[in-house]
Amino acid sequence: MDEKKHTKKFVKSSDRYEDINSSGITLIFTSVLGFVFLILKYLDVIHLYFQGFTEYMFYFVMGGMFIAFFVVGILSLKQAKVIKAGIAKEEDTTSSVLTYFSENYSKDYIDECIGIAELSEGDIYYKRYEFIESELHNNFEDIDDSYAEHLIEQIYENTFEASSRRGI
What we know:
5 helices, about 0% strand, 2 domains, rod-shaped, mainly alpha
């Protein structure tokens, strides 16, 4: 039985950058607000009364949590900076792969290569997908599996679904 390997879903670097960057900013903002709250509580501007040991635990737990937020926020911003550096490379690779396929593989050529005349309606998609996958890995060997799956879907859509929308 042929088992298809499962790959994690591909997320574009630009989307990952935005997610991680906004998370980092949110965590830092929350930690700063938390520290302001703790200072105001300590100065008794905000009136919350705890007795004895409970007050120390409140400062310890809340302070620790806000320090953790701040550290994770800084680390998130550093990671976002690294991801941002790779956005242009990913976009260039995507563009070059899509251009290569649009210039070298037409709908008719792919259908001829897979022998579309002998295939049932249900098998056509899978054979086209396998052909594109094979050609992609033959011509671009260093592409990650989840990224390759994303590219194959884009190539398929550009080649077959876009041409059917144009009435070709």
